[in-house]
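Assemble and predict.
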Amino acid sequence: MKKILIADDEPNIVISLEYLMQREGHEVLVARDGEEALEMISEHELDLVLLDAMMPKKSGFEVLQAVRAEHPDLKIIMLTAKGRDTDIAKGQALGADAYVVKPFSTRKLAEQVRQMLD
Amino acid sequence: MMSVGLVIAISFAYLALLFAIAWWGDKRAAEGRSIIASPWVYALSIAVYCTAWTYFGSVGRASVEGVWFLPIYLGPMLAMILAWVVIRKMVRIAKTYRITSVADFIASRYGKSPLIAGLVTLITVVGIVPYIALQLKAISSGYALLTTPAGTELPSVTQPWWQDSTLYLALALAGFIILFGTRHLDMTERHEGMVAAIAFESIVKLVAFLAVGLFVTYWLFDGLGDLFGRAMADEGLAQLLRFDHGASPFIYSQWFALVLLAMLSVLFLPRQFQVMVVENVDERHLKRAAWVFPLYLFLINLFVLPIAIGGLIYFGAGQANPDLFVLSLPLAEGAMILALFVFIGGLSAATGMVIVESIAVSTMICNDLVMPALLKTRRFGGRSGGDLTRLLKTIRRLAIIGLLLLGYLYFYLAGEAYALVSIGLISFAAVAQFAPAALGGMYWKGATRAGVLAGLLVGFGFWVYTLMLPSIAKSGWMATDFLEYGPAGLAWLKPEAFLGLSGLDPLTHSLFWSLFGNIAAFVGISLLTRPTAREASQAQLFVDVFERRGDQEPVFWQGRARVEDLKDLTERFLGAQSADRLFEEHAQAIGAESVANMPADARLVQRVETQLAGAIGSASARVMVASAVEEEPLELDDVVRILEEASQLRAYSQALEEKSRSLEQATQELKTANEQLKSLDRLKDDFMSSVTHELRTPLTSIRALTEMMRDDEDMPADQRREFLDIMVSESERLSRLVGQVLDLARIEAGHAEWHNSDVDLAVIVRQAADSIRARFEEKSARLEIKGPHQVRSLRADADRLVQVILNLLSNALKYLPEDNGRVVVTISDQPDGVTVTVSDNGVGIAPAEQAQVFDKFRQVGDQQHQGTGLGLPISRQIIEHFGGRMWVESEPGQGATFGFFLPRGGEDARANAQSRGERK
């Protein structure tokens, strides 16, 4: 069982992701905005973060930039509804392990998470 | 008294300082960092007008004639009012055609006539020599006063000339001026160092004069009140403060004559022409000079009457020479330092005049008297004449020495005979004779060379006969019989009552006859004679100088020339270096590959001639160019033809310019349009990106939940039910979003349909509130409506207004607190419309975010408050469609108030505005 943080401000998306990750057998934590996500990343021993790009207070990119240096081994998957190439490049440059465009396939996302955590 | 050695040492130290300033000015000019490129320096240099004659003579005149010293300074003040019109034109003409003296100015206008140039120069020399003598006299008297023990008689000029210190003063000044003004090889260069030194001298003499003025007024006496009070008490002194002469009334003619005389001389005195026209760096400096120079004159005249009255009271009338009051008053009081300073001030006034005057007049003597004669000789006139630049310099130096020696001679022979002021006025009257020819030539194309010759001769003749001869006679050099009885007893020819014109003072009388004769002859003969082609062409260039510029100027020359000949000619007078530079510049200007390849056309010939004119005067330049090329004589027809060609060229280039201007404008407009399109494009991109994001968000939930329900067959029923509920609400959100995006797009594009009717907003508000009340009850929040149940109707789309109010209410509902949520709607009927506000007690909106709430997809706070982010923008669009406005007020934590105002008749106003816009 791994510890996963879901950081997203859309309640229904959080519900979906929570169900998906719990079904995969992981412990799930939830953050509703960027600042909350930062707090939880520093407080908990996490294995993976599903990080929404557009969140109130702090964007996913800002969160990524802030935690990358201190948590080099933490797996981070960026989730975004903006599928622009520039955004993807930005996420990769900042050190995201994967970049998933919404709406995503639950099977593929689950598979990706499984591979990363192995 | 002071020791001779001290006075001489101080004087030379002052001259050395002047020279240092001049040297520095020249050095800066050579480095390209001019110190005279300042309107202040220019204005101060014009104050060279105030010579020793002003410095010593004004007090002298004031102590005899009272306020009558004033016209000499009122004239220049009036002349400066015309500066922008007249002097600017003189400056423009002189710069365009490289004119370096007043003689050249007049000669150039009348077909570059050597005869006129020579005549003007002669008149100038005759008229100016006494003026230079006057300066020598002033310095010499001042020097004598300083170095003679008090109480002894001042020595008169009785010692033999070789023992006279004034002679050595004249020679020293000549040497100094030679160092000053003729050091440069390039004669056409301006004298920057000289101008800097002159400006400095203007400050020295003003400060010195003010110092002695303050000394007399406030040290010797108790201020102006005391002085004038005492003067009024004395019959003889009170006279000075009145405009009338004793018993006789105020003499308008004399006052007018003096003002006119001074007005003309400030324009045409050689030194004024030099500093004001030739040395002008920038035409705009005239604007400053137009008030600074009159102000200077005002200041330097401020204490003239007080000093005169003070001197008369102090010494007693007739006891001391009033011309030297400025020196004798401090001396008598033992204020030695002040006396020395005043002497230096007088020295600066005198040297300033002598320096500029002799540089200006020596240029005229060289270019307009000596050169024409030399160039007629075989040695210098031929094509093989050799480099003449050194010769030019030598001639000018000799001319300077000659001028100062002549000045000394005049001083030696006649200096004691006349008061300072009379000598100055005689010079002024001579110079005034140039006015008709110069001013007429600038504005009247019909003026001819013959007319000018006649005018100058008649005017000068009258000047000699009615002013110069009488003054010589009065000095005791001639019998005065002809003054009293007329020559050969012919009374109507009496010099001071010509044709029986009596009752005027000699100066006014002379000025009347000389100017009257001058103008009559000038105009009369001009009307009777036809100008030659050369005169006509120069008339065009002078009178219309402001109407042309650069390459559009007509070139009045035809014939054949060779580049080498022109270059040889230029080298002889300007030196090889300047000639090279000139030809290279010309080649560059016309786009020729090299100097050898460029055409020797009229334009090049004209350019060479203009440059030569700067060095040797336009008349000599004309002669030299004519000798170096094969000219075809210019006929009047040719002048007309060339003018026409030039005006066609001008029209053509104007058309081109206009075209290029309109092209430029079109380009600019296109650029702006492109920028607008680009920014619209960016806005559209942003909108699309936001819409995509908003569409993808509910889609994400729907897809994820559907997939999981498909993959997870064991999902509990209640879980399945919850997911289905989410999917339904997200689908609703999607369709709402699509609807609103389309709605907004239609409104913005103007394609929305509006079903207008007379609506009562009070009714609309209650209708909307009723339909949403259930949702308020769900959250156990209160919804109150305040205001009348009926307001006067206005024209609008009822459904759209319901939509707006629903938007505002559901918006408020989203941000209400869990407990005690409360929303208040107020309706108020106003004369010109209806205002509706919706206030909640929710979280409120931070000031920074208030401006953004009406932006598309901008939701304040976190995303828990579901919404499309399009409700408020659509609402505002609707309100604005009906001519109203929508706003928000909020304090964070205190809730927010959204309000809108709808005017009555707003819909009509908008419709009208739109139809107007369409007609455009």
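Residues 860-865, 915-920 of chain B have pLDDT under 50 and may be disordered.
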